[in-house]
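Late entry, evening session. Most of the bench is empty. Finally got around to the prediction I had been postponing all week. Sequence below, unchanged from the version circulated by S.P.
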Amino acid sequence: MSYSKRKVFLSAFKYSIPVLLGYIAIGIAFGLVISGIGYPWYLASIMSIWMFAGAGQFIAAGLFVSGAGILQACLIQLVVNARHIAYGLSMLKRFDRQGPYKPYMVFSLTDENFALLSSMQENPGRSDEERRLFMFYVAGLDHSYWIIGSTLGAVAGTLIPFDFGGVSFALTAMFVVLMIEQIKKVKKLPLFIVSGAAGLLGVFLLPGNISLLAALILALIISIFIRGEKV
């Protein structure tokens, strides 16, 4: 091969450092929540490996406590994670070129992975295989950060007395930071203003169980017209 896997890995690691800093902190917060509601530490690790859904995992912890039924839990998770439909549609072309990595790339498409991969610049000097491997490494590294953080938090929560008030806000803080980074990279402020306005309209005018999904659909439709693209 004309490229070094080690070099591609190091490049992916450097690119994923913003998520590393956020995922370790937020993962620890999630682990603390799991241990705080009385579950064994390894449940946090299992959920992070199998689910890999930051907001979804925090919500799942709350559903555990409330004793929600399986159907109710599935519906809530579907609504909360419906935004990934928009993510997936926008990444179809990139993932179609991922070859054997595609199934994992689809599974690992979190908000943060989407933020990194969607803003990744085309590099004429990078071969198709290097690009595929780079994207795979970024996704895998992000996943590992989340697993490590949640495991550390859960173990710490079982060993150290801790006040869990406000811990879950760490996820919101992470989203804000990623949004700021996206604004700087994409440099299309109207798209973010439209998305923010759609979110506010959804929160204040619609029931909570559909506000997020409706806001996403509205923002997507308006953004397509702003960019002059056909649906």
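Two things to note before I forget:
The chain has a mean pLDDT of 80.
The two ends are 40 Å apart (CA to CA).
Will write this up properly tomorrow.
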